[in-house]
Amino acid sequence: MIGEMRDLSTIEAALMAAETGHLVFSTLHTTGAAQTIDRIIDAFPTERQEQVRVQVSSYLIAVISQALLPKATGSGRVAAFEIMVAIPAIQSLIRERKTYRITSFIQTGARYGMKTLDQHLFELYNRGEVSYEEIMIRAQNPEELQQKVEGK
To answer: CB pairs under 8 A, 24+ apart, for 120-128?
Structure first.
């Protein structure tokens, strides 16, 4: 368990532990799977980033992002999350500098247990757990989520 990966030395320690076969859990303040991967890679000097891409693509198992939203009842909070599983296609995107395409793979990866934040926000809204205003504030693609809500 590594607390938050705030600096290069902590990220390096996490990668080294993963590389030697340890299961590493850590936190990072980001708003989604693709941004998490980019943040890890961007922490390294430019001349090391290609090597780190290969390491991350090889040892990453999953990224789970969460946001806590106020419940529609006004009392308490509910977690909205995004789940990305590092399937071979996603590993390739990481190696090829195409993390911007990860969200589309998550959208179609339900059979692997994947779900985008917007998909989960829509589910929470449909169940009446969170308000429309709240999901629109948190949405990664508000226009697309609005169309989905209006077409339900």
So the answer is: 120/80, 120/81, 120/82, 121/80, 121/145, 122/148, 122/149, 124/69, 124/78, 124/80, 125/149, 126/152, 128/72
The single residue listed with the structure tokens 């449909």 is 126
Q: How far apart are CA 83 and CA 95, in angstroms?
A: 20
Q: Output the pTM of the full model.
A: 0.90
Contacts with 34 (C-beta within 8 Å, 6 or more apart), sequence order: 99, 100, 102, 103
pLDDT digits (tens, 9 = 90+) for 3-24: 899 999 999 999 999 999 999 9
Is residue 22 classed as helix, strand or coil in its secondary structure?
Answer: coil
In this structure, the number of other CB atoms found within 10 A of the CB of residue 53 comes to: 20
